[in-house]
Amino acid sequence: MKKKINRIFESDSIEDIEDKVEDLLDRWDFEKINASINYLSDCKKTILHLLLFDHTIYNLGHQDYYTDGYACGGLSFTKPDSENYIFHNSLLYGLYENFDSIEEFKPLIEILEKFRIDVDGSQRETKECENCNGVGTNTIYNYDNSEFEEEECTVCGGEGETMENNTDSGGVLNAEELNILDSNYCSIRTNIISRIVKILVDLYNSTSNVVEGL
Ligand SMILES: [Zn+2]
Hints:
By secondary structure, the protein is mainly α. It is 49% helix and 10% strand. The chain is built from eight helices and four strands, in the order αααααααββββα. The chain has helices spanning 2-9, 14-26, 30-36, 42-59, 62-67, 86-98, 106-114, 175-205, and strands spanning 124-128, 137-142, 147-152, 161-165. Helix 4 crosses helix 8 (175-205). The radius of gyration is 23 Å and the shape is elongated. The protein starts with a helix and ends in a 9-residue tail after the last helix. Zinc ion (ZN) binds at residues 129, 131-132, 136, 153, 155-156, 160.
């Protein structure tokens, strides 16, 4: 176990750590990533999640972080969903839980808290209702009078169609807001990375594993 942990955290250069992050990025599915690092403590997981976040924001920015599915948990496995930021929320929660007292992370937490996506309502598209196959009603058996009856579909309300966000088109309305988050992150990135390196070096050097903020 100790050996495994050290294998990820032994790196003393940011380039080595970035290689590990690249490796995790290859299996970009939040569940798969977590499965491959499930032997790590929550603190260490959060650090790796933070490095994945950094890599994605630094190379793509917040808008692609959303439209490519990263914020929601993984490429092609999870369709972007403006209501459900699984990865993003988990990172934020991990920082609250494990690194609340670290000064350098406070502006980062602010940026993470501000992240939200406005999806263009006009880019919502209608889809045939899966509950009633587009008919608008479902046939149910009424035990009281022993007859089959047509009941209005409870999913589409009888319309036969449901509205869904057309996520393929992006349809992100608040791009400017997201650009501001990008530049805010870039302006604190050096501080964040050097703090992460310090945490990793402390972790590696510490025999007791008692590290400030951990
Ligand atoms: Zn229906």
